[in-house]
Each structure stands twice: as structure tokens, then as C-alpha cells.
Amino acid sequence: MTTAIAPAEDAALAPDGGVAIRTRRLRRTFTTRGGGTVEAVRGVDLEVRNGEIFGFLGPNGAGKTTTLRMLATLLTPTSGEAVVAGADLLTQGGLVRRRIGYVGQTGGSDIIETGRGELVFQGRLHGMSKSQAEVRAAELLETLEIQSCADRKTQTYSGGQRRRLDIAIGLMHRPRLVFLDEPTTGLDPQARAHLWTEVRKLRDSGTTVFLTTHYLEEADALCDRVAIIDHGSIVIEGSPDALKRQVAGDAITLSLQGEHENAFAQLQALPFVREASAENGLIRLYVDRGETAMPALMRALDAANLEMATLTVARPSLDDVFLAKTGRSLRDDNPN
Amino acid sequence: MNPLRDTALVFRRYILQTLRNPVWMFFGIVQPIMYLVLFAPLLVKVASSAPGFPKGGAYNVFIPGLLVQLGLFGASGVGFGLISELRMGVIERFRVTPISRISLLLGRALRDVVIVTAQSLLLVICAIPFGLTINAGGILLALVLIALIGLMTASLSYTIALAVKSEDAFAPIVFGATLPLLLLSGVLLPLQLAPGWLRTVAAFNPLKYAVDAARAAFNSHLTDIAVVQGFAVMLGLGIVAVVLAARAFGRAVA
Ligand SMILES: Nc1ncnc2c1ncn2[C@@H]1O[C@H](COP(=O)(O)OP(=O)(O)OP(=O)(O)O)[C@@H](O)[C@H]1O
Ligand SMILES: [Mg+2]
């Protein structure tokens, strides 16, 4: 019972030092009513290090929530294994639950309870005494700036207040690892920025944060490392900077005057173009350095008798990474 | 964790939720009293004129049946609350804590049992001025029986709620199941008045034994075979229902 409320460091119990989560070939298949099967997660290998903010990025239905729910002991994996917070997911579920916090995509507070009531109850579920839970609840209400509505039913909360309460609930027992499933979806930019600050503070106090998001900017700005999941498989994993460097340099997007049968092939073949894609008449070229590639590109276009209609040069984003890896844009699924 | 402490914790959450909702409490109590005031007087006439009516006076026959009905109706709808909690993610949140799995069921079912039993007691007290003759032992026995019915019904209600997860599917199942069970148990009128075929069908209804046991208890036949039968049937079904519900709670909320 004491371990439940102790701070996050009983290092003796973390055999694979430095690693908060390690999964091996984690799979989950659902059987649907009609008898068909959905392969929601197909063999995910992940490594999340202690004390980092790890972002799990992917379009709708990619398998983010399913993966999270498996790691939080809510769903039994169809196959595969994992170590979560130093405990074996399959054989030590109780230990995992004691050490992690989980904030689901839909939250977890009851609309007929007050925020403070939910926090105290959560503390009690984790074995705290009433007074311990009350002290901790007051602390979190202050940190997350929801004191003003603490004693109202959560039914009356704004979206941002409710999300912050959900997160506070997940942090009640000072878990060493916390899962946040889309913590900022539906928040206005100000509330989102506020939450980012809180998440960074969490990390700085030694908590590992595993979050999912649709927002590329969020993953880029907030996360130390990200994994992109698509159709149940990890497409790529690493720090946002490394991913962008590895997959694509700067992106040059251009369109041409008139129709040109083999313009794309010609541009793709240029020595300094690392990767290229074409979509809706727009040609996108990935080059190591935009500023040196531009003059060379101009010359090549001249030589081929092609004339540009539009041109933009952009530093790469995680969307470019996704696009380069899957041929689709993340943004198409989630205009935001 | 300690299942007793956890059960008490869960019980406290839900009993407070119920007590905070006076409208619900009000209707839970008013419904049986309406039967008492608006329906029971009819029975007094029937009791004196129908040849097959059991001895003991109209109220001593009617109130035990009403109590069983209260136990069944009162507890059958508890799954609605669970479904809304599933939707809000509350149950999922509880499941990612070290709380003992069985406490999630027992704590809430205990709340349901307490509410149903308290309502039953109130109904008994209200019926005294109408002409219910009481004996403490019989009433105590009957209340224990109602508590068992409440426990069984609530557990089944939770099991169904966890299986179907939507109000749309839950409502017809529950209403479709409770009504025939009630009609075939002799709750409103004793089955002694029924034609033979109806009595044969009713013999397969576990609730009938509960009603018979409650009537025997109310009429001071505490050692009657009906009492033993009623308790045995309800205890057996109660245990089965609790096991089913505990397993449903323990399984993933996928
Ligand atoms: N209980 C279930 N039964 C059947 N299929 C399911 C179930 N849960 C999830 N799925 C399917 O598994 C796939 C992955 O779903 P999941 O919720 O993990 O996606 P996600 O990445 O979290 O998406 P989103 O960004 O929309 O939250 C989807 O195709 C979904 O329909
Ligand atoms: Mg999701």
C-alpha cells in the first residue's frame, strides 16, 4: 500500500534501467459482431525511456488508443509482450496498475461528482488515507488551476477544465509513468499551451509521459521522442529532429505551367533530390538544404524547358515525415 | 488491496450518489405506497369473496408480494447507471487502479441492497395502519429475503449492462424479463386463484418461491417448507448472479 503513494523512484524494481516501456511484437485483434476481425495493432515494438515525453502520433483508427489500453492493462494483447514501469504486463498487471496513471481519451470523471470528490476518491482507490488524499487533491487543483470549480459538479465544467481534472485524477498517486490519450484534443490554443507547460513540468519532476496526439505541431514542440503509427504498425520512431533529418531535408513544393508528361520523373532524377512525391499537380521534392538546392533546381528546370507556376520552400514538419513514409498526409484525416 | 476496505469505499461513493438524488429516492418510495393506497383496497373485497384466497387477511397476503416486486423492480434498473459510467470512462478509470476487482461489484450491489431493504421496511411500516398484522421475526426474515432478491437482481442487471453496453439494448431486455417473472410469481394475486396450466408454468419461476416464502414468513409460519425453499432458491441464484457479475467486471471493458 505504501508503494502506491510513494514517489516514483523505487529503482530497484526497474530491472531494465532507463526504460519505462518496452514492447515486443504487441498485437491486438478484435472480433466484430459480423464475425470479421479488425487488426487494430499489428506487432508494435516500442521503447520509451524514463523521464521523457513520448508522443504517439497517427491518424484516426491507427491503433493508438488500443495500444495504450493494452499497456494500461485494460485490454489483453492477442500476442506479444511488454514491460511497463518495471513490471511485466502479462504477469504483473497489479504492479503495473499501481505504478501508472492513465487518462483515457474520453476522460474518466463522473458528471454528477465534484472535481475535488473525484480526486479524493481516486487517491483512496490507490490506498491513500482520506487526509492524504485531501492534501494531494488540493495540491493538484492548485497546480492545474482548477480550484475555482473544484466543488462544482463536473457537468458544469468547460472542456479545458474537464481535461485538466482528468489529468489531475491520473496524477493523484504520483505515478512514475502516465498515459495521456489525446490530452489536448478540443482545447483552445491557450488551454493547450497551458497543458504543454504542465506536461513539461511533469517530465522535469521525473515522470515519464506517454501521450497520443493528432496534432503534429504538438508532437514536434512537446515531445522528446515520437513514434508514428499507421494501420496498427509503427512507421518510424525517434526524436522529432532526427526523424525530420533522417526522412527528408527541406521540402520544395512547386507546380508547373501546363502539362508535362515526364516532368516528375526528370525532377525526381536530379542528383540533389532525395525523395519526391506528386499530389494534385503539386510536386514535392525533399532536399538536404533548400538554400543550395534552389539555384540548381532553377538551372535544371531551364535546361528541361519547364516553367514554374508556384513555389514554396519549407523546413520539414512531421507531416512530411509521415507523407514520405506512407505516401499520405496526416492532415487530410484531421483538418485542424 | 483489502477487499473489505475497497468494498466499503465503493459502497460509500454510490450510496452518497443515491442519497444526493432526492427525486430518485422519492419515486422509489412512492411507487410501492401507490400500490398500497390505490390497489390494496380492491384486494380486501377479493379476499373476502374468493373461495381460494389464502388465509391471513388481504394485507398479509398482498404486502409480501409487493415487497418482492419492490426488490425486483428496484434493483433491475441499476444497470442504467453503470452504462452511463462506462460511457464516461469512469469504470475504465477504476480498473487502472489497484482496487480489488470484486469490490467494484460488491460495493455497488451493497448500495442497491441497502436501498431496496430500506424501502421495504418503510413499506411495511406504512402498511400497519391499513391492517397488516406483524411479527418481528417474520418481517426480519422477509427483509433478508428481499435483500437477497435485490442482490441477485442487481448483479444480473450489471452483468447484462456490461454485456450490451447500451441503454437501447439494455432497456428491452430488462423490462422484457422482469414483467413475466412478476406476473408468474403471484405477486399481485395469489397463484392459488390461477388455472392449472398457469400454476404449472409458475412452478418454474424462481421468484414464485420467494413470494411463497415471504407470505409464509409474514403469516408467522417461520419454519414452513416454503420458507426453506424460498431461501434456498434465492441464495443459490444470488451466488450464481454475483459470480457472473464479478466475472463481467473482471473482464476487459473492451
Ligand atoms: N472494441 C473494439 N471492437 C472492434 N474494433 C475496435 C475496438 N476498439 C478499437 N477497434 C478498431 O481498432 C482500430 C484502432 O482503434 P483505436 O481506437 O486504437 O484508434 P486510435 O488510433 O486511437 O484512433 P483515434 O485517433 O480516432 O482515437 C480501429 O479500426 C477501431 O475501429
Ligand atoms: Mg484513440
Q: Care to describe what's here?
A:
The complex is a heterodimer of chains A (336) and B (254). By secondary structure, chain A is α/β, with parallel strands linked by helices. Chain A has helices spanning 2-5, 64-71, 93-99, 115-125, 130-143, 159-171, 189-204, 216-222, 240-247, 263-268, 290-303, 318-326, 330-333, and strands at residues 19-31, 37-44, 47-49, 53-57, 79-84, 87-88, 100-103, 177-181, 208-213, 225-230, 233-238, 250-256, 273-279, 282-287, 308-314. Chain A folds into 2 domains: 19-242, P-loop containing nucleotide triphosphate hydrolases (Rossmann fold); 248-315, Alpha-Beta Plaits (2-Layer Sandwich). Chain A is built from 13 helices and 15 strands. In chain A, helix 4 (115-125) packs across helix 5, helix 4 packs parallel to helix 6 (159-171) and helix 9 crosses helix 12. Chain B is mostly helical and 254 residues long. Chain B has one domain (3-252). Chain B is built from 11 helices and no strands. Chain B has helices at 3-19, 22-49, 58-76, 78-88, 90-95, 101-127, 136-164, 167-183, 196-202, 206-218, 225-250. Chain B is elongated and about 60 Å long. The relative contact order of chain B is 0.15. The chains are: A alpha/beta (336), B mainly alpha (254). At the A-B interface, helix 3, strand 7 and helix 4 of A face helix 1, helix 4 and helix 5 of B. The structure holds adenosine-5'-triphosphate (ATP) and magnesium ion.
